[in-house]
Every structure is written in C-alpha cells, then in structure tokens.
Amino acid sequence: MNRIATFFCAACLLPLAGCLDVVPVDIPEGKPLLAVEGEITDQPGPYYVTLTKTAPYFDEAELPRVRGAVLTLEDSEGQREVLREVSPGRYATSTVRGKIGNQYVLTIRAEGEEYRAETEIRRTPEIDSVRAEFRAKTSTRNEGYYILYYGEETRGVGDYYQFKVFHNGRRLNQPGDLIVTNDEMVDGNYINGVELTNEEGVGGVFKKGDKVRVEALSITRDYFYFLNEMVTQINNVGLFSTPPANVRTNVRNVVAGSEKVAVGYFAGHTVRTDSLVIE
Amino acid sequence: MAFALRLFLGFLCLLLPATGALAQQPAGRAADPNGKVTVSGYLKDAANGEALVGATVVVKSLGIGATANEYGFYSLTLPKGTYTITYTFVGYEPQNTPLVLSENLTRSVRLATQGLQTDEVLVTGKKPDENVKSTEMGTSRLDMKTVKLMPALLGEVDVIRSIQLLPGISTVGEGASGFNVRGGGVDQNLILLDEAPIYNASHLFGLFSTFNPDAVKDIKLVKGGIPAQYGGRLSSLLDVRMKEGNTQRLGVTGGVGLIMSRLAVEAPIVKDKGSFIVAGRRSYGDLFLKFVPDQKDNQAYFYDLSAKANYTLGDQDRVYISGYLGRDVFAFGKDFKNTLGNRTGTVRWNHVFNSRLFANVTGLVSKYDYGLGVPEGNQSFDWKSNIVNYSAKADFNYYRTPQSTLNFGAGAIYYTFLPGRVTPISANSIFRTIALDNQRAVEYSAYLDNEQTFSPRLSAQYGLRLSMFDYMGSGSTVYEYEGPNGWQKTPVNPRQYAAGKLIKRYPNLEPRASLRYSLNGHSSLKASYNRMVQYIHLVSNTTASSPLDVWTPSTNNIKPEHADQLAVGYFRNFKDNAYEASVEVFGKRMDNQIDYINGANTLLNRYLEAELLYGRGRAYGAEFYVKKNEGRLTGWVSYTLSRSERQINGINNNEWYVNKYDKTHYLSVVGIYTLTPRWTVSSTFNYSTGIATTFPDSRYVYQGLVIPNVNGDVRNNYRVPAYHRLDLAATYEGKPDPSRRWHSSWTFSVYNAYGRRNPYSIYFRQNADNPAKTEAVRLAVFGTVLPSASYNFNF
Questions:
Q1: Does B241 contact A at CB distance below 8 Å?
Q2: What's the average model confidence in pLDDT over B660-669?
Q3: So which residues are the signal peptide here (chain A) (predicted)?
Q4: pLDDT at residue B6 above 70?
Q5: CA separation, residue A179 to residues A8, A193, B645 (Å)
Q6: Of B130, B657, B682, B690, which residue is most buried, by most CB within 10 angstroms?
Q7: What is the pLDDT of residues A36-88, one digit of tens each?
Q8: A165 and A116, same structural domain?
Q9: Could you tell me the CATH number of the domain that includes residue A75?
C-alpha cells in the first residue's frame, strides 16, 4: 500500500515543470541528544545496542559515540544482564536469549541520565519462498528481475512487518528502500508474490547471477509507526508532503518532562530469511 | 438546545411585528392602506437576457432606491405619485422611466451595454459607489470580463487563482488546491456553484479550478460580515453563479489553449421565456502521450460539463435547473488508476408571492468522490471514498419598506460519508475487503435577517442563524478515546448505533451584524461581527490538501468548529468613484480546530479520531486595497498584513505556533491597460512571505539512514523563502466586422516572467551518493517561465 502513496506522489509531479535544487539553509546547531539503535530478535545473540549523540544537521562527521554507559536488559521471564561495551559506544548481550512472546526492558544509564525502553517479540509467519521474476519494460518500470515474496499471513489483524533486501551481500539501503507494512488489508491471506524491490532502490534492476537474500521481520505496532514515520520524514517531497515532524522513539528519560530526551529505537522483532541466486 | 430555540424564537418575535404586513399584503394589485404602492420586476441584459445581479433602481427625487437580488428581482415601495425611475448598472446605459404610480406595478427592464466606443475596461459589476454605500464589508466581486483579461497560468482563465489576488486571500503554494481566507484552512470556505457545495474545487491536483469561466456569470467572495443566510464554514463564502443562457438568440463561445479546449452553447428555449447553456472543457495532454511509445498506456486528463436551463412560467414563477460534472482521470497502464471529481444538480423555483415578497426554493444534490486502484494482478484492488449531500431550502426576501428588507429562510442538508472502502477485484488478489463505517448526519438551519436603513448616514444588516447538526448512526460503531495528547489514543466504550439513531446533536446560534456609517458622500466607516459554525471537516495532514483527503462530520468526539470575527473598516472613493480604497482590520477567534499527531495516518483508518488533536486558533490582520475603476489603466493594489496561529495540546509543547498558511505579508498588484481598441495588455505581481515549516537542527542515524530531528519538538519554527512572481498578458481582439457575428481574440501570456524558482517546500535528505552528507532541497512547482497562447471566439 505504501507503493500506492509513492505512485501517487510521482503522479502529481509528472505533469509539472517542477524542479529540485540543493539550496543553502542556515539553521542553528541543536543540542546533542542520546541516539539509540538496538534490537533483540528471536535468533541467537549476541544482540547489540549502539549509543551515539545527535549532531548538527549539516555536520558531516561521524556521530560521536557514547562510551561508558551502563545498559541493563531484562526479560519478562526475569532474566537480567548488563551489556558489555565491545567497541566504543557499541554494547552486546551475552546470556539473554530473545524469544517470541517475551517482553524486554532496556535501561540505559549514560551521562548522568537514566533512560528506559520497552519492547517485545511478536508472533511471526514463515516465508514460503522468495523468487525473482523477469518483468518486461512498461511506462512505469524498466525491464529486469524483480524480487517477490510468497507466504501465508497470520490470521488476525495487528501484525506488522519490515522487509530487508540484500543484493550480493549488501543491503539495499537508500531512503526509498525502507519497506514497512501492516496486515490491515491482507489479513490471513496468502501473499502470492508481492514485489519487494523497485528499480530506484538498486540503481537498476536485478540481473542474472545476482545473489539475493531477504529478511522478513515481524515487528511491534509502535516500531511500525516509528519506521513509517521515518519513511515519511526521509522521503518527504512533493505537493502532498506532510509537515516535517520528529520521528517517535521508545527510549524515554525516566524523569518525565526532562529536556534530555533520547531519539532512536530499541526494537524487538523476529527474523526469517530466504535467499536465492537469480538464474 | 431548548435554550437556543427559545432565544431564536425570541429573536423572531422581535423582528416579526415588522413583518406583520407579510400576511396582510393583499395578493391583488391594490395599494396598501397607508397609500403606498410597489413597483417590482426583473432587471436583465438587453442582449442576452441574463439577470443583472446587483443592478440598482433609484428614485432620485426621493433619494431612495433598491438593489436587484441574485435573480435580478427588485422591489421598491413608494408613496403614490409620478416619478422618474432610474435603472443603472455599471457598464450599461442607464434607463430613466417616467412612471405614474397609483397601484402596484410590475416593470421588468432590459438594460443595454454601453456602446463599443468606450475602450475602457470595467473592473466591477456593481454600482460605482457601492463600496462606500453598502453595509457589505470583507466582500469582493470579480467580473468575468476582468478575469479574462488578466494573465493566467498556461492561458487558462481561472476563478480561484484570480480571487487569490484580492486582500486576505492566499494559498500555501502554486498548484496547491483551494485557498486560505483570513488565516483559515482550505476546508473553511463554503464554495457554492449555483448553491450546491463543491467539496474539492480543483482539477489536476490543484493546478486549475473546477469552474469553467465560460459558464460563470458572477463570483462573490465574502470573508467578513457574512449574512445569516449562509453558514456551515468558518472563513468565507465563495458564491459562484452560472450563466443563465441567452434568451434572445443562439450564442457560441469557445477557446483553444495549450492545456484544454472549451466550448459553450447557449440559446433560447422559447424566446424571452426560457434559455439554456451547456459548457464543456477537456484537457488534452493525454492525447500527446499516445504518440510516445513509453507513455501510450498512460492517461492523465480532466473534463467538466456545466449545464443550466431556466424557464419563466408567467409573471410569478421561474424555474432553473443546473448541473455540473467534473472528472479527473489518471492511469499508469495496468499498474494504477485514479479518478475523482464533483457532480452537482440544483433545481430552483423563484416565486413572486406579491410585489414585495420574493421566494426561492432550492433542492440540490452534490457529490465528491474518488476511486483508486490497481485494475489487475495479484495486488488488484478498488478503493472508493465519497461525500454526498442532499439539501432542500427556502429563502425569502421581503421588501418591507424602502428602508428595510427582511431575508429569512430555512433548510436542511442530509449528508452521507463513505470514508473508504477497499475491495479486491481479482480472484488472486492478496487484498481483503475493508470498509470503514459509513457516516450520516443532518444539518438544519433557519435564519432571519434585516437590512435596515436608519438614516442616510446609518444603515445596518443584522440577523441570527440557528443551526443544528445531528450525527446519526448507520449501523456503525462509535468509540471514545483515552490517552495522552500527542500519541495514538486507545478506543474504548464501543457502542453500536442503528441507522437513523441519533448519536450526538449540536445546536448553535450564530449572530451576524454589519453596520455602515457614512462620513460623507464618498467615505464611510463599517463594522461587522459574525459567528460561524462548521460541522464538517476535511481531514488533511499534508501541506497542500490532496484529492484523497476525506471529509468527516462532527461526531461524538469531533466537535463543531466555531469562529467569532470582528472587523472594522474605512472605505473611501476618490474622483467621483474612479478610485475606490479601503482599509479593513479583522480579528478572529476559533475553537475546536483539528490537527494531527506526528505521523498520523488519515486514510482508511478505522480509529482516525485516535490520531486527531483539537485546539484553538486565532487570526488577525489588516487589509489595504486601492482600485482604479476607470480610464485606460485599471487595476488594483492589495496588501495584507496578518497572522494566523493555533494552540493545540500535544503539539509544539502546547504553546501557540503559526499555521502553515500564515502569511505575514501578502501583496498583489494588478494592472490592465488598453493600448489600442484592439490590444489590451495586463500584468500581475505577487509577493508573499514563505510558508511556515519545521526545519531540523540535528540528525541521527538509524539502520544506516539519516533522520532529521529538531530539539524541543517545536512546530513551524522556520519560513521557506519569500514567494514572488510577475505575470504578463496581452489580448488581441479580432477586427470587429458589423456584418458578421463572429468575434475572436488571441491571448498571449507569460507566467512567472522572470523564471523564479519559487520554493513550494524545503526538505532535508541524505545525499544519494554519500549518505554521510546531508542537504536541504528546494522544490519549485514551476521552475521556469511558462509562456502560452490561446484563441477565443464567440458568435
């Protein structure tokens, strides 16, 4: 369904002599905030959490790492561990094992503040297969191989998914490649071949001999909204763009109302994988 | 409710003694007992029979007069005697008629347009001193003759783009659908086409408006001092009246432009008794697509059809039927299809009960719908959404005395809303059927208003409107919502309502008043107050409203919006009305304004109300306007200084922030110059403050992608750079040939003459080749000079 929105945006720009230019903009440098990126999955660990700080928008330097933080992960079965800092700002688990149905709480103590993030790992459907199909050239696409997903969707509305596509080992990772979806419109149906790629993402379509790997993630509702807001904000162009706004986070300062908020997400999800070589 | 009704009834009683004569007035032609008689009738254009809306009837010796209503009807009550009655209308030869008045008299008059020797262009279709004499304020009329001479985007004359050159009226960007009036949203304008509301007045996502200029007779925009007759939106009334059709002879008007062609045919049904007009337009960009191999399966076009007929059934009755159908179609081969449009139908019956009581009864239906979908394959689906309303109303004008006209009436609107339904259309589609509950509502209204002249210096129009909105069940489930503002709320307490069962009722009283005090013959002070209530709302979370936006009624959760507006103005004409000038200052307070949580999903969302936020709005400003009506150079300068803000709990830390359509400065200059009798040149210039937007101040990285962030989660902390644009046009009239009726003209225009890349928006992204690098990108809708030529004809 996201595809439709994209289509629609393209459609409305089509008849216009519209143009895009990179322009200089003078904006102030925002105060640095804690930025969290971490996950726990139903696959064997270790699981990683990376802590950085936000930087001025036009600053090109790598984001500063947050070292020496104390991170504690606890699951709903009562298991608890303190993460090790394996490289600057990167923290790893060693004992906790992610399990479908469990809830997780991550506590972060960094630079005098304490933050908490809650998540869970939800049920997941299995991938039947991932296939590549040749499509001829049309007015809206180039010819080449497109990657399709096949599999049963779990009955009951309220499932959310992210798909990641890897091309010869490298993840397709332009802003337009971020695919998140929900089961509102397809609940319980067999997904018989939905395209996971479009030509823009890979700078061309897939060719014979390419190695393809697909990861299907069953994610939480809140993480779906996080990713969806992220999609909106990083592809926010066109007549019907939405007003820019901050993307949500599940990492909260334990002192409500504190100015030292955090950004980013600690996400629990499943991972199912399938791969193929295009012949 | 009971309180509101009592108040309204009390108000009726206050005014009703004055209407006593209503019932006593004998149906025959006898004069009334105190020796006064009435002359009444219709004022029409001699050449084509069109009603002359706003033409005046004056008895100079008594210094009293009357104005023709929107159907051209006038009524003037005088003591018995012999008078010279003068009928006037700008652009027409005045007519002086000596009359011996001893009994009630019907006198319909045809005025002829002024001779061709005047090479002047008239900017208005109203009396020359109306600006200072009427109680109207915040009201602008545009004459189609003027609009047709002004530069137009791609040569296409456009009603809605033209009104954006008037004070207090702006837009969020070129190509954006709709318009903003005095700091209000695009859904806060009541757009009426022959009394039928138009829910989306755009073609091609907002580039062109839905009105065919060849079928439009008169456009009036009221943004303050809105009479009690109108209600249902907070900010303005845009009243578009279609031509009635030539009652004298067959007439054909047409044009060929770069984007579309137009044709209108009008003719008498029975000469002097009835006539019709049928007008159509179609864009033809898609016809060229057929020749491009890659594009031959794609479609992108729109068309509209306007039709109207009227018939006079004797002296007392006249019937009008009008209809509109507009459609936009976009298709990308078999991958995607989208269609949308408005359709309306209006039936009106004018009845003259007696020489002082005029009535109009209207029945109408209006629908806006869109569909989108994928026609085939395993992702096929069909998505539909619409809003439909059926409406009936009766409006009366009672010309009580030359000093007082009472307007009263009542009406009801029945709405149905289909927020969205998706169905798979092939057996192998992965989609299932999803249908959001239909919604139903009825909006009732009754009003009474009096136009009163207290003395030659002081006149007023004041009235009261009672409106009521019933949100009703349709076998639907309604919820309440719990949770903190700023996040998706949780639906609780589901309740099922059978069809027709009342869920929530909202009654409201809407007082309206405007006052004019003449300082002298050429200047006046005016003041107005109006309270407006809006019961239906456009759910739009994008910078410019999109055709997929859905209207929602007020529900148990969404409350009606209210606005109180106060305005004062100074109006002055110079040099015997050759120039008119005004300054108006307004202040407006609004409540129950709708906004959205960050990342709100407004489409196909069963729990849409969980993502809505409500709060207050305020707008204030000053509008300056100078217009030159006569001479070889005509035109106007309009400047608006204003502010529009809102305060919504859950946004911007609950503090006030400026609306996206807030414009600090808004300037328009319009000049039309008659070079020779055959060449007319014109130019418009526009300047406005850039729209308010939110710029990030920092960034972070997630899954390898750069995300912008702003400290403090503030809203609309920046402005995109200012917008300015110059347009030019020249019209060349074909050589007049008295032996032929054929008349033609060429219009050449240049839009965005200095090719400025006006920013529509600025957005932030990571560089496609180097994700570590971030950049700000400006989107300009028209980045170049757009020249065009069009050919117009009539015979």
A1: no
A2: 95
A3: 1-17
A4: no
A5: 17, 15, 36
A6: B682
A7: 999 999 999 899 999 999 999 999 899 999 999 999 999 999 999 999 999 99
A8: no
A9: 2.60.40
How confident is the model over A208-267, as pLDDT tens digits?
999 999 999 999 999 999 999 999 999 887 778 888 899 999 999 999 889 999 999 999
Nearest to A186 among B430, B757, B765 (CB): B430
Closest CA in chain A for residue B696: A57
ipTM of predicted assembly, 2 dp? 0.94
Flag whether pLDDT at B115 surpasses 70.
no
Contact A12 B205 (CB under 8 A): yes
pLDDT in tens, B154-211: 888 888 989 999 999 999 888 788 899 999 999 999 999 999 999 999 998 888 899 9
**Tokens 């004069």, located at residue:** B31
Residues A92 and A184 in one domain: no
Residue A95's identity, in one-letter code, is T
* Residue B600: band (very low, low, confident or very high) from pLDDT cuts 50, 70, 90: confident
Spatial distance between the Cα atoms of B663 and B640, rounded to a whole number of angstroms? 8
Listing DSSP states for B516-567 in one string gives: EEEEETTEEEEEEEEEEEE-EEEE--SSS--TT-EEEE--SSSPPEEEEEEE
Residue of B nearest to A11 (CA): B330
- Substitution target from A7, A14, A22, A25 for chain B, most B beta carbons within 10 A: A25
Smallest Cα–Cα separation from B476: which of B440, B434, B422? B440
**Domains of chain B by range and CATH?**
31-112 (2.60.40.1120), 132-348+355-794 (2.40.170.20)
Mean pLDDT of B547-565: 95
Whether B500 has its CB under 8 Å from any CB of chain A: the answer is: no
User: What percent of chain B stands above pLDDT 70?
Assistant: 93
3-state SS track over B476-490: EEEEEEECCCCCCCE
Q: How far is CA B229 from CA B397, B447, B766, in A?
A: 11, 6, 54
Res A204: pLDDT: 57
Of these ranges, A8-22, B25-39, B56-70, the one predicted with the greatest mean pLDDT is B56-70
Cβ count within 10 A of residue B572: 18
User: What are B300's two structure tokens?
Assistant: 């992108």
Residues of A in contact with B693 (CB under 8 A): 243-244
Q: Is B488 on the interface with A (CB under 8 A)?
A: yes
Write down how long chain B is: 795
Give B273 to chain A, closest Cα distance, Å: 45
- B696 interaction partners in chain A (CB closer than 8 Å): 27, 30, 57, 244
Strand partners for B196: B193
pLDDT attached to residue B334: 77
Whether the Cβ atoms of residue B203 and residue B281 lie closer than 8 Å to each other: no
Is B764 at the interface with chain A, CB within 8 A? Answer: yes
User: H or E stretch including A231?
Assistant: helix A221-234
| CB-based contact A57 B762, cutoff 8 Å | no
Predicted pLDDT of residue B787 = 92
Q: State the residue range of the domain holding A94.
A: 34-122+246-268
| Three-state secondary-structure class, residue A170 | strand
pLDDT value at position A44?
95
- How far the first Cα of chain B sits from its last, in Å, is 57
B13, B17, B40, B388, B454 from B20: Cα distances, Å = 11, 5, 20, 39, 19
Please give the tally of structural domains in chain A.
Answer: 2
| CB atoms A30 and B702 under 8 Å | no
Q: Is B372 helix (H, G, I), strand (E, B) or coil?
A: strand
* pLDDT bucket at B521, cuts 50 / 70 / 90: confident
Identify the three-state secondary structure at position B409: strand
d(CA A265, CA A249): 5
Between residues 352 and 381 of chain B, which touch chain A (CB distance below 8 Å)? 372, 374, 378-379, 381
Measure the CA–CA gap between B385 and B559, rounded to whole angstroms. Answer: 22
